[in-house]
Amino acid sequence: MPCRLVPRGLAVLLTLLLVAPLVRADADDTVNVTAGATVQHNDNLFLLPSSANPALVLGKSTKADDIAISSLALKLSKPYSLQRFELEASLVDYRYRTFDYLNFTAFNYAAAWRWSLTPYLHGNLTSDRKQALNSFADYTGYGTRNLRTDENTRLDGIFEMSGSWRLLGGLAQSTRTNSQLFVQEGDTRLNTAEGGVRYDFRSGSSLSYIARNSRGEYFNRPQPLPFPTLADNRFDQRENEVRLLWQVTGKTFVDARVAYLSRNHDHFGARDYAGNVGNLNFVWNVTSKSTLTAGAARELSSYQFSAGNPLSGATSYISTDRLTLGALWQISAKTALRGRYDHAQRDYRGAIAASPLNDRLDTLRSAMVSLEWQPLRTLLLSTSLQNDQRAANQAGLDYQSTVAGVSAQVSF
Q1: In the chain, how many domains are there?
Q2: Which residue among 13, 322, 366, 406 has the highest number of C-beta atoms inside a 10 angstrom radius?
Q3: Strand-pair partners of 177
Q4: Residue 58 pLDDT more than 70?
Q5: 2: in domain
Q6: E strands within 119-233?
Q7: Distance separating alpha carbons of residues 182 and 143, to the nearest angstrom
Q8: CA–CA distance, 395 with 143 (Å, rounded to integer)
Q9: What pLDDT band is residue 341 in, cutting at 50, 70 and 90?
């Protein structure tokens, strides 16, 4: 972390350190308040290639920035008979030293009603909202602030039949909006209905099958678009999933999921895609103080470029293969060391027109290490270092970025 830090962030950090000994909090309290402050240094905020001249691209002599992040969160949890009500709401303020046009304050929340009509018929009604900057790995509007807002509402239920069989059902709506035009991942609303069955083993493991049917729409798309594209307005999405939660031993756990996903557009079949997706996650509690995790996943996601855009090839979706390794070492009762490594390949598919920029393939690597220290029950201090890299088979898309940060969190 360089010595030139954000004064506002340091002031908040020092304030939290001073008040921490005076407050008290209990995880079982009905109401908990958490205040946090983080100071970060990012040496390549916009994820520019090493060959890029920041003065020409950004109008500044540097591509680095210092960021102060302040947060205040309120958490409520209240049981009532067979019901439980939960609410977590937060304000998160982001302040950039150099590129201050990126400053914003996010209002995030997650609310839940853990409902139960009888001990055998229960479920969840949840709603959440999260706001963040679009990643500059994909969005290249360097002179603008493009905020992404994700909102989700879901109602699900479980009916426990005799024996170990369970009936599953749910309804959900997910909405994603961008504050600026982002054609590749445009504003989308997805309405989903699902149903399935699950078998619970006495060991604590379970095996389930769920079928999902969704109706989606793209909205807030200006007409005409700034470059020629096959921009549909509606699509149908179907997914058939089998999932195994397996308690292998007292120290090992496996979460395995395999599904077939298909998306079909109303007017432009060239944008359709389908294929197998899933994940395999493994958790091993090596000792009482150390845990290792490993995961593999395949994902399909919409990402719509057009050959008419001079900055891109013709792409309808991305296929991502991901490997993840993680470790936790509880050094002492108050100190913990965490590490994580991700390796992913992103294959840009679904070309709708010939272009020399088709067949794009990215390799992404991310490594992170963090050290946590909890000197008081109400105070958590941490420092972290993260490095992200992308290597692409097309010129001008490689980047490397390192982010270092320190943070403090106080619970009341």
Answers
A1: 1
A2: 13
A3: 149
A4: yes
A5: no
A6: 121-133, 147-160, 165-178, 188-200, 206-218
A7: 14
A8: 22
A9: very high
